[in-house]
Amino acid sequence: MKFLLLSILCGYVTADLTCPPGKVLNPCGDLCQVTCKDVKTNNVPKACPKTCNPPACVCPDGQALIRGQCVAYDDCRRLPPEDE
To answer: Total domain count for the chain?
Structure first.
């Protein structure tokens, strides 16, 4: 129900979007996608605009994006700086 309400509020239809394994659908897009760089600089939770973009597949809560993959926050903290 929450997903449907967000879709209606954002004004987007998401019926055709299927996320790959390890990612979840966010009806308001990926503006707030947390990256490993955000985790390592303590920018979590990330400040997000109060607008919606088209729906997108993002990392689930507690995971951050690096090189197109979702990893746990703890894994981000162990990465060397060049891998951010």
So the answer is: 1
Q: Quick check: 44 pLDDT over 80?
A: yes
| 79, two tokens | 């990465």
> What are the backbone angles phi and psi of residue 58, rounded to the nearest 5°?
-130, 170
Domain of 40, CATH number, reads 2.10.25.10
**pLDDT tens profile 15-26:** 578 999 999 999
DSSP annotation of 24 reads E
Task: Round the average pLDDT of the chain to a whole number and report it.
Answer: 83
Contact criterion met (CB below 8 Å) for 39 and 77: yes
